[in-house]
Sequence to fold (217 residues):
Amino acid sequence: MKKAISVFSGGLDCTVATSVYAQEYEIHAITFNYGQKAFAQELKASKRICEKMGWSHEVIELDWLDKISNSSLNSDEDIIEVDVNDLDDLKKSSKSAENVWVPARNTVFTSIALSYAESIGADIIIVGWNEEEGATFPDNSKEYLNKFNELIDVASPDNIKIEAPAIDLNKEEIVKLGLSVGAPIKESYSCYKGEDKPCGVCESCLRRERAFKKLGI
Fold:
């Protein structure tokens, strides 16, 4: 069976994206610890999902990224709480994105994933990048995906491609996709704050909750 590396936080997007390829590929999930407040919960979710789906799982420690980041995700700064009505306001959602931005996070994650892919002979790297978050996070955008694949064509001797099946989807469409491929969505965790019960007021929680409500779930 062909092999795939999944950049895996245990969240909604990566759970759905990885599940799309679960029947065709042997999945090797990697979870990064960069000092984020939600790491303990992300780890629990990641382990739970990988055990259920039969995927291998490994944690990669990025202490240095924790040290240089001043993001509210991994510092003493408070995570911004937003109103659901502000999610589609680009100015307000951009402020929230700036608050949780970790320096070059996806570039670091994907570069490490490429190294792992080369080492085990994987054909693809799976990521949960999507259109809704790509509006305010440049490293979730379709342009970023295309540019990174162009870089791999030049930088790697192997024929490896980043696959982002949600790149043109909003959260509601991601949930629909997850249901269609049997993704273990209920096992995923998406809260920025890392509490046992998701806070329901951070941007990640609100986008997830809105998607389920729109679908009547």
Notes: The chain has one domain: 2-214. The longest helix spans residues 105-120. Residues 2-214 form a domain with the Rossmann fold fold (CATH 3.40.50.620). The chain has a mean pLDDT of 97.
